[in-house]
Amino acid sequence: MTSYSLHGAPDAGADFFEVGLGEREITPDLKRHTVWLAGFGSGRRAEGVHDPLYARAVVLRYGKRKLALISIDVIGLFYQEVKAVRAQLADYEYVLISSTHNHEGPDTLGLWGPNLATTGVDLGYMDYLRQGIIRAVREAEKQLRPAHARYGIVRAPELLQDSRLPIVKHDELVVLEFISRDGQQRRLGLLVQWNCHPETLGSKNKLISADFVGVTVRALVEKYKCRVAYFTGTVGGLLSSLGLPIRDEQGRLLADGTWEKTERYGILVARKVEEALQGAKAVRLVPWRIRRQVVYLPVANRYYRAAAQLKVVVRETFLWTGNPYQRREAPPDAKLDDLAIETELGLLELGELKIVAIPGEIYPELVVGGVQDPVDPGADYPEAPIEPIVYEEVKGPVRMLIGLANDEIGYIIPKRQWDERPPFCYGRKQAQYGEINSLGPETAPILLEALRRLAREHKDVKLR
After folding, report:
1. How far apart are CA 280 and CA 274, in angstroms?
2. How far is residue 400's CA from residue 310's CA, in Å, rounded to a whole number?
3. Mean pLDDT across the stretch 17-42?
């Protein structure tokens, strides 16, 4: 396996970093673009805008080195789009683009068009989105100031619904607070990471919105008078606010799919951020070691194959060789059974902070543990070994996971919990939801083994 390490010392004597936050609105113009809302069924055409969507960037500079962490209020972005943005930010050692996985924004993948056979992607909007990302980064650069940081973490199981058995919640909310080093101790910005599907508005909504993420960010900006960037983490499984009992200040139960529940949930997340900040402690964010690993994953999902054939989904494909680290171009006559996609894992060590970058929606039991053991007798692969667990491989008290990082490959499901064929697990009459939006049963074993190797890789090699 070849991993690539970005490393090296900054200018002599530079024992601190600089930070800047920037944002650009990426709300589609409905007069120019036909917008199909993503995340639920096809044919959900946007009829208006309730609240804006944003690309938000956190830029860090350490000596002469720069990295950018970017969050965008859309359903997801394919790896080739991320590479296209990186090409325009060539002065950066590393660029991470994570989607919030917003279910009330435009289709940026193609799966939610007017019907199952027609893409929902508007190419004009995709260009606008890419430029918005780049402008957010360049704006953040202009705000760079010497800083130090504080790290806060709080648990919030009451704000998560796990809709698939076994019930496992990744219920840690993490916040990084950036503070100026100019003697005034000004708050320069917040980076928030939480693990929940932005889908509170449900499938009947037809207005563009950032869902609860927009509410949380606005509440925090108003309170702390600084820029705030929200990043999605572990959302597979399915971790959601749908079906979760949420009450207003008077104790009234709020219904799914309503603006009232969405606003309330966003405020409750913001309050958890406040709680995390109250217990935040200083954290050192230098020096840096940033590792990434490109892997190739076989496409077993027949619906994804059909979508690719129909050009509903357009992404680069390669020949599956059986080696997840081998790149081989697919010939024009390659069989669908022999195709693979290219994606990327990342492991960022910023001083004491470790950030795991996962290119999809990973199940929480693969992050914090709790994979079914002993296996349910109805599982399709009962002999499958348990994959390496993210937080057993990436240890430490100061860490976070960023999901949908640099790609959206769908659900990452423990192989021994894969359950497409009857008899179904837990005595159910039909399969649980998940497999229909996964590349296949080998995705988790390949990705998690690659992460294990990446976490244990100490050889520094030049980034190509």
Report:
1. 10
2. 38
3. 96
Q: Is the pLDDT of residue 3 over 80?
A: no
Helix orientation angle between 259-278 and 212-224, rounded to the nearest 10 degrees: 40
**Using CA atoms, how far apart are residues 148 and 161, in angstroms rounded to an integer?**
35
Integer Cα distance of 105 and 270 in angstroms: 21
Residue 187: count of CB within 10 angstroms of its CB: 16
The Cα 96–Cα 405 span in angstroms is 6
**Residue 193 and residue 402 in contact, taking contact as beta carbons nearer than 8 Å:** yes
Whether residue 382 is preceded by a cis peptide bond, meaning omega within 30 degrees of 0, is: no
CA dist., res. 403 & res. 387, Å (int): 18
Interval 360-365 mean pLDDT: 98
Q: What is the pLDDT of residue 13?
A: 37
Q: Hey, which residues does 143 pair with through a beta bridge?
A: none
pLDDT (0 to 100) of residue 183 = 81
Q: How far apart are CA 356 and CA 345, in angstroms?
A: 8
For strands 281-283 and 288-298, give the pairing.
unpaired
Residue 458 confidence (pLDDT): 55
- For 64, the token pair is 């002469």
Is it the case that residue 202 has pLDDT exceeding 60? yes
Beta partners for residue 346, in sequence order: 292, 357
Q: What is the mean pLDDT of residues 133-150?
A: 97
Confidence at residue 1, expressed as pLDDT on a 0 to 100 scale: 39
3-class DSSP state for residue 379? coil
If you write DSSP's letter for every residue of 416-444 in order, what string do you get?
Answer: GG---SSSPGGG-SSPPSSGGGSS-TTHH
With 0-12 / 13-18 / 19 or more C-beta atoms within 10 angstroms meaning exposed / middle / buried, residue 452 is middle
The per-residue pLDDT for 15 is 57
**Mean pLDDT, rounded, for 57-68:** 97
Residues paired with 48 in a beta bridge: 207
Domain ranges of the chain: 1-464
Report pLDDT for 16. Answer: 84
pLDDT at 351 over 50: yes
Structure-token match 């860490």, residue found: 399
- d(C-alpha 143, C-alpha 227), whole Å: 11
pLDDT exceeds cutoff 60 at 14 = no
Q: List CB contacts of 195: < 8 A, sequence separation 6 or more.
A: 160, 169, 170, 171, 172, 173, 232, 233, 234, 235, 239, 364, 401, 403
Both tokens assigned to 287? 């020096």
Interhelix angle for 79-87 vs 123-142, to 10°?
50
